[in-house]
Design brief:
The chain has 10 helices and 9 strands. It has 2 domains: 188 residues, no CATH class; 151 residues, no CATH class. The chain is 45% helix and 20% strand. α6 crosses α7 and α7 packs antiparallel against α8. Strands 1-9-5-6-7-8-4-3-2 form a 9-stranded mixed sheet. The protein has 363 residues and is of the alpha+beta class. β7 and β8 form a beta hairpin.
């Protein structure tokens, strides 16, 4: 059932009701078996993917979602043949998804670097029958939260990915779900709890005017770190995945603070300030992909300061030719800009760096 949107406050209970009705409709039409972990705490219908007019996959999560030690098990069932159209996520990514969940739900960061990794052959019980499964296990005991593992098996033509923490694979019993009602209601209950937790968090204090350009600096430093982290992962042959500290609400808070300061310092409208901040962040994030001196060097710190001052005050900074070159590059709107534009921008930065080095006082 669709409800007309109005300009008034959102009726969250109506939203939950609509979501439950949609979940019931989808699950009733599932054309493949869906599995979940048998656990006294029950489970939730966490995610589902729809494509080509029907369900592509269904994810059921069960256990203690609020505890880093667990136990907690995620079971994602893909329709038969799904892997022939789109490659399924690696088991390493399934492990990282579980660590992401713990960070997002309870604020525990278990680190970005794999710990002690093992490939194991284990057994998981499915509808009372033991089945062999190849498992990727990642132990980060230094974080104090034990081991996370993921395995994949085929059941009646469907592919099933199982991820667990706080429980070994041999203790996991999967069963085909016949009645989805408790999982649909469990989803609503979890959404309510997460919403309450977010509401209880203190709102960030308004940024005092005397902080000046600090919001711009912090946002730029974060943007550079994000760009370098993604590039390092791609070079290592891993899926691009931002470090957890660079995602989520912190990013939104920093962005909002920078936009507010830009409006105040540059006497710009909100739309103009947002565009200015967007250009600023993209400027040095893109530069980070081309040079190796932008992070952790005096030249990098000076570049951040000059980009910030040019953005906020249009200052006549020493890197002004590079700033103007970026304006022309950014105005193109896409990386496929007229030949030489990016070269001109990078050349301007290199000339600035060389000239700056030559004029630094000798010790």
């Amino acid at each position: 059932m669709k409800r007309q949107r109005t300009s008034g406050p959102v009726d969250i209970e109506a939203v939950y009701s609509d979501q439950e009705a949609y979940g019931r409709q989808l699950m009733a039409g599932a054309a493949f078996p869906v599995f979940g972990w048998v656990h006294e705490a029950g489970g939730v219908l966490a995610e589902f993917e729809v494509g080509n007019g029907g369900l592509e996959s269904v994810e059921i999560r069960s256990g203690d979602w609020s505890s880093a030690p667990g136990p907690y098990v995620t079971v994602r069932t893909y329709r038969p043949g799904a892997e022939q159209l789109v490659p399924l996520p690696d088991l390493e990514d399934a492990v990282e998804d579980e660590r992401d969940r713990v960070y997002e739900h309870i604020g525990v960061d278990e680190g970005e670097v794999p710990g002690r990794v093992r490939a194991l052959r284990e057994w998981i019980t499915v509808d009372g029958e033991p089945r062999a499964v190849q498992v990727h296990e990642d132990s980060r005991t230094a974080a104090g939260h034990g081991t996370v593992w993921a395995g994949r098996l085929r059941v009646d033509g469907a592919t099933v990915t199982v991820t667990g923490r706080g429980v070994p694979p041999g203790a996991v019993e999967l069963r085909r779900i016949v009645d989805f009602e408790q999982y649909i209601l469990g989803r609503t209950a979890l959404l309510r709890e997460l919403a309450e937790r977010r509401a209880d968090r203190a709102e960030p204090a308004p940024e005092p005017a005397e902080l000046g350009l600090q919001a711009h600096r912090e946002l730029l430093e974060q943007g550079i770190a994000r760009a370098l982290a993604v590039e390092a992962q791609l070079r290592a042959g891993r899926s691009a995945r931002l470090p957890r500290r660079l995602r989520g609400e912190d990013q939104q808070v920093r962005w909002e603070a920078a936009v507010r300061q830009q409006m105040r310092l540059a006497s710009e409208s909100r739309e103009e300030a947002d565009e200015a901040v967007t250009s600023m962040v993209n400027h040095l994030s893109r530069l980070a992909h081309h040079v190796d001196w932008l992070s952790g060097t005096p030249a990098g710190a000076a570049a951040v300061e000059e980009v910030v001052r040019f953005t906020a005050f249009a200052s006549e900074v020493p890197s002004l030719p590079a700033q103007r070159a970026w304006e022309r590059l950014w105005a193109g709107g896409t990386p496929e800009v007229p030949s030489g534009t990016e070269d001109a921008w990078l050349t301007a930065w290199e000339l600035w760096r060389v000239e700056r080095t030559q004029h630094l006082p000798r010790r």
